[in-house]
Amino acid sequence: MSLPWIKMWLEALDDPKLTRLSLAERGAWWGILKLAGKCEAGLGIDEIAEALHIKSGEDRQSLESMIAKMEKRGSLIWNENHVLTVVHYEERQRIPPSSRPEAVAERVRLHRERQKTGEVKAVGELAAISKLYEENVGQLGPVVAEKLKMIATDYPPGWFKEALAEAIEAGVRKLNYIEAILERWQAEGFKAPKIKEGGHSEKGQRVKGSRPASDYRGKW
Asked: Residue 2: helix, strand or coil by DSSP?
């Protein structure tokens, strides 16, 4: 069950209308705003004091002095029925459509749906890349299985298959080498130029920060 609430604007911390009030008077002001959010009809001074649980004469004085000051500053008015009203309260407190409970609930539903869809896709991709690994690299162990799970989550579908093909072409059937390919694609773009011996791309250009494929052999 959701509880009723009101907006409290951060600008109030530096609002001269409020900073010139005493701390007790500011407390009375926030109490007035809460009452405005709770009561559909305005209240008189005695009803306000009772609703705010004011017991002492000192607190009653703080309430009355705050009302007098904020009335002069244009934030409170008394109507013809001697009912206190907060000026522009409805405008300031109006809840935009995007913040209404039904809109929030819909956003949560869509978020969960996207999460579930992503999880289903990741599971399907994991099954596919696990099969490819076993058929082309070796048996699955706990460490490898965990790495493949991360690959299925972190990279788009199909990337592992293409990276595996590049690794096989380079003659390096090692998972770390495949991961290096995926990291390169993630940084430079899908199917970025392959690194050949001497650190050159397929076009014969030296790739910055690259190492030849032979550097990876025997190290994983």
From this structure: coil
